[in-house]
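ok so dumb question maybe but i'm new to this and my supervisor (M.) told me to 'just get the structure for ABC transporter ATP-binding protein' and walked off. so i did the thing. is this what she meant?? sequence i used:
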Amino acid sequence: PPVIQTTDISKVYRMGTEEIHALQSVSITIQRGEYVAFMGPSGSGKSTLMNIVGCLDTPSGGQYILNGKDVSNMTDNQLAEVRNKEIGFVFQSFNLLPRATALDNVALPLIYAGYGKSERQEMAREALRNVGLGERALHKPNELSGGQRQRVAIARALVNSPSIILADEPTGALDTRTSHEIMELFEALYVRGNTIIMVTHEEDIARHAHRIVRLRDGLVESDVVNHDLATHQ
Ligand code: ADP
Ligand code: ADP
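this is what came out, is it supposed to look like this??
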């Protein structure tokens, strides 16, 4: 079964008497192990779609099945539970705790998941090694470069073995060379079988994904697989 299946999902925002149709009828199926970029100009609905796919919000209409589970009409608490288990988030702004070490930042999601301290530390160390930061475990964010901070955030997203890595403009705060390094890391994670969804408005970043879904005015304008890059399926 697909990891993600949206069927005709729509999203309407109400602003006073005005209705904004941010998504109109979006149907997307994503299989385990895919690496997909959501692209589109500002206002096309990327953030709205990411928030729904990431279980931060629910659609106004249509159906969203995540790992065989209908999450379209869940309450906020149910959604939070699914989100913590299934989704690893990576943000443009890293969202790391400034006073905590890389290790403690990465271990944080494991506290909510109920792991004991030594297990958390072991899993966090392993996740840091997986992003090439095994030697930086005890550094705090301000003792790391931008690219290293984003690697810590990626390790935090991976540590709980989520079904999906959901990255929102993951290179938006990074220079070109560092962005390229982060894309190389995502490619390595993809080759290892992770399912990755990345939201970006940059062509140069999107072309690293093996499939590009383009949104325009809340609709899927195109959905294209790059067969040169698709190592799975
Ligand atoms: P993108 O991420 O591609 O820039 P968004 O999903 O943020 O697009 O926005 C899609 C449309 O929905 C835009 O017209 C935007 O102004 C509107 N919109 C997004 N979020 C809200 C909100 N919370 N309330 C009202 N309108 C919103
Ligand atoms: P960007 O830096 O790309 O604008 P943000 O960090 O502002 O991204 O977050 C994008 C979306 O994710 C927003 O809807 C925000 O409310 C939500 N978000 C941000 N941080 C977290 C978090 N730690 N956990 C869950 N949702 C978050």
